[in-house]
């Protein structure tokens, strides 16, 4: 599976948005990671369906939507209508995860489930055969000050082994604290997609930082 860097746009200020999108395009980025937060599931408010619709109609990026909300089903319908290409929700945010996965997929959109640091991948056993992706949070959602949690690479290893043993095809995505120093651990564990926020969007030279992360991936693939 091709490994990708997914910039998280949550912390991009409005005055920098257009320039940053152009930088991502020049750097060969294919997919943007868009967090939607409701201030209930996590303490913060995040981006909304209007921005997703704007990105869908005005850019060529794929849109990977991450719902950090307490009631994901109605929100998933909003972001799908706005142009989401993939929608991921948290395993503990809804009672019937299977139904929501199928609802998303029936709209022609990829469905994923996110695992918080305290969640076990074994919780997904019944769902892994139908999922398009699993998102492993490598920080506590909404609490970025905790930093990258290196213990989460064991979760990635478990998912990688399950995928191999069962000939499954879900992507393994990691989100939180991804820098040149931390990406190597999750690459080695088997992750496919790497969400990076502050390291890219707050950088003085975002394009150079994207290339640095890509370089880490290429170096690992050569080994």
Automatic annotation (TrEMBL):
Q: Which UniProt keywords apply?
A: Carbohydrate metabolism, Iron, Isomerase, Manganese, Metal-binding, Zinc
Q: Which residues form a coiled coil?
A: none
Cofactor(s) the protein needs: Fe(2+); Zn(2+); Mn(2+)
Name the Gene Ontology molecular function terms of this record.
D-ribulose-phosphate 3-epimerase activity; metal ion binding
Q: For this UniProt entry, which residues form the secretion signal?
A: none
Q: Which domain of life is it from?
A: Bacteria
Q: In the Enzyme Commission scheme, what number(s) does this protein have?
A: 5.1.3.1
| One BP term from GO | purine nucleotide metabolic process
Q: What class of enzyme is it?
A: isomerase
PANTHER family found in the cross-reference section: RIBULOSE-5-PHOSPHATE-3-EPIMERASE
NCBIfam families given for it?
A: PRK05581.1-4 (NF004076)
According to the record's subunit comment, the protein's assembly and interactions are:
Homodimer.
Q: What is this protein called?
A: Ribulose-phosphate 3-epimerase
Q: Identify the species of origin.
A: Lacticaseibacillus zeae subsp. silagei
